Amino acid sequence: MRYLPHTRSEVQQMLETIGVAAVEDLFTGVPQSCRLDRPLAVAPAQSEGELLAGLRRLAEGNASVTQWDSFLGGGAYNHYVPAVVDHLISRSEFYTAYTPYQPEISQGTLQAIYEFQTLICQLTDMDMANASMYDGASACAEGVLLCLRAAKKRRRVLLSRALHPHYRQTTATYCRYLDAQLEEIVDTDGATDAAQLRARLTEDVAAVVVGYPNYFGRIEDLAEIAAAAHEVGARLVVAVSEPLALALFKSPGELGADVVVGEGQSFGLPLSFGGPGIGFFAVRRQDMRLLPGRLVGETVDLEGERGYVLTLATREQHIRREKATSNICSNQGMCAVMVAIYLALHGKQGLRRLAQINYARAAYAREQISRLQGFELPFAGAVFNEFVVTCSEPVAALSKRLEQQKILAGVPLQEDYPELENGLLVCVTEQNSKDQIDRLVTALAGGQA
Amino acid sequence: MMNQARGLVLDELLLFERSRPGRIGYSLPEAEVPEVLPDAELLREEIDGFPELSEVDVIRHYTRLSTWNYGVDTGFYPLGSCTMKYNPKINEVAARLEGFAAVHPRTPEPLVQGALELMYLLERDLAEVSGFPAVCLQPAAGAQGEFAGMLMIRAWHQARGSRRHKVIIPDTAHGTNPATAALCGYEVVPVATDGLLSLEAVAAVMDEDVAALMITNPNTLGLFEGQIREICELVHQRGGLVYCDGANLNALMGISRPGDVGIDVMHFNLHKTFSTPHGGGGPGAGPVGVGERLLPFMPTPVVVKKDDSFALDTDRPQSIGRVKGFYGHFGILVRAFAYIRSMGGEGLKRATELAVLNANYVRARLEGSYHLPHQQRSLHEVIFSEAGLANGCRTLDVAKRLIDYGYHPPTIYFPLVVQGALMIEPTETESKQALDDFCDALLAIAEEARETPEKLRDAPVRPRRRRLDEVQAARSPKLRWLPDQDAAEE
Questions:
Q1: If you count residue pairs, one on A and one on B, with CB atoms under 8 Å apart, how many are there?
Q2: Mean pLDDT computed over every residue of chain A
Q3: Which of B280, B299, B428 sits opposite A97 (nearest CB)?
Q4: Considering the domain A69-81+349-444 in this protein, what is its CATH number?
Q5: How much is the pLDDT for A349?
Q6: Region A84-341: CATH code
């Protein structure tokens, strides 16, 4: 086996040094009653060529967004990833290292994460960000836990129904056995209903959680929601599943968010059937010591040279054990570096321009579809690059019809929102050319593109 | 003997300091449609301090940063409990195949049969290695797998109307164990061990308030918990369940299966046992093996096979729900699957045997020069203490001096039950020659501690940075770059 370097004579020499006759003698600590008495029934080893052929066969069994016209979004976005990103993260000094426990020989990872933290602060307009979380959904759940920790006597959490369903479900799982009461706030015109929110907000609410853009692609009125939450002393958690929107729209920090969490997949990560993504997590200075997860800070070495270390570890599980702010003990290190590379390449101008293209193309598609007979836009308010369409035709039949033309029309909404029985969430990015959009519109109308 | 290391190490500013107004590193398509913008009151201003760089700037920046890192591909990385084995390159190729990397998670099921089949096959392989009837691939990392497992245990109790509120955790456990128990609303009952957990120690605290025992096997001292079967029986008899931390599964493949000895649920670390890269801290993947009792409580969705096709099943009324978005770290699952198929059943067992051989060889070579607090036969890792180091030198000094010899240090000061622990896990992918060089370095350091202890205290002297001031970092935290800070310093 090519990953196992031992020659037979080396094994023999090693056994002699140890003072045992055979490798089996090293396992005397495992009682016979605990032994597996047969070989593992795992397929025999394959050569690299055979393995790759088999994997290709499996890969070909999937419809990729490079072969199909995809208008799927809903928490995972088809953006172009510049060649530089994969080239740089293929440097194995990055991807074969572990958590930077030994800072003297991990300065590459540490500085890259420090830069990532800074970029997230800049995008969200928040004071500090951690080294990343597993994904947007779990970051959202951890955001709620932070608010519950911060306000010990407040036990209610108000979640907008227009927040991504996976974020709501994951938050519910995380809070399942904690003393917390999760409630949903209805949506009107595809956005959080401000009147119901105000009516439900009392002094026992720890957190209000809304999406920005929300699951329907809508730009929520964060300023109003923040004001309402702050009136009763609750924190506002803003969850961002499409962070490219932050290059164009006012930032959650500017509009009054207390905690900003989200998913960074849009910034340079492949779709990869939904993972790995990367969660980001940003707070105000006052909540610094309540942050979950890893944090990188600047310091100096013995000779006064600038350097970076993991810091504020007393929040974490390996020191505090059951009193830790979270059980998380890793971050999405590699993904954080990918995000940082992507943001560095696009920079101040590129990211804004990219967001404008997404906005304009989505607006064009929305406009074209709204003119079709049998299609309606149920929500009128501002969106970024996603919007809801309702059709007179059952969504399942429509999707099947478009699949014949290798078009993935959108994410069906009925399962999570029964009232949107024939609702479809359509996403348009820079990867969807005007031609693609026109083909979609023609196909929706029943024509052959 | 000291690794030859010489060369050029280049300094590099922060991205933000390298930035120049007007520089660009991107290429974007034309809009192709009418240019429209949202209402002005919704628009944000330009992002202050956001970087502006060319493609060459970015390439140089990250290439230079990478040279300040030490990875498994650089050299020996014996970080105990982390199983830093070689990360095969074909796995990277596999995860990047277009039919995996460019697939949207909401693509209709009939159009992602290949992805679902891979997940199904991986679940079957992990089930076979671990002895559990089912495996859930969703958790993002070991700690999240642990969380999912403990939630299932709590849901099982709840379904039976049991209000048990305590969890037993041995003092050798990873910090995640108590943190996870707390996250599930449980109180922690610590139990002391003398290297191994005894049936009597568990019996003494296993009462009708205890919902579960959390155990690591082999434990963090590298010792197989010899009474595991009896301990599981006792916990079950008294109405509890047993969680196993699977961090050390690399010691057991083809030898012993946790599901067979009575464990109810266990997480895997695909980034340890199954060779996926650690990525400088992640992403990993933490699937959970699930025993019969807990099957109804598994996180959803679950990949199921119906006739000849695969589907995602969400109709599980007793499920604990989802712990993250979508279905798991699919890109990592592809890598782990490629590893298992490269190794085969026999190869996995051989990996375990050689991992144990390597750890015992390091132990044999260093025993006598470093203090071994536990004499029992250890498996995949060996733990020394700082007792007996000359001239008051400490474990930290030994670790930092190892850097000067060209090695990544072992895990230090863990487990907490060993004074100044030095926890060495070589893994099976290191050759005898690599181990000999490493042991020679540690023996030389023990000698230096006697003769020239200042060499340890001053270490490291060879990397780009000397010891960093962690106290200052924590006392006045500086967690981001700010545009005005440089202006103020100038």
A1: 685
A2: 97
A3: B280
A4: 3.90.1150.10
A5: 96
A6: 3.40.640.10
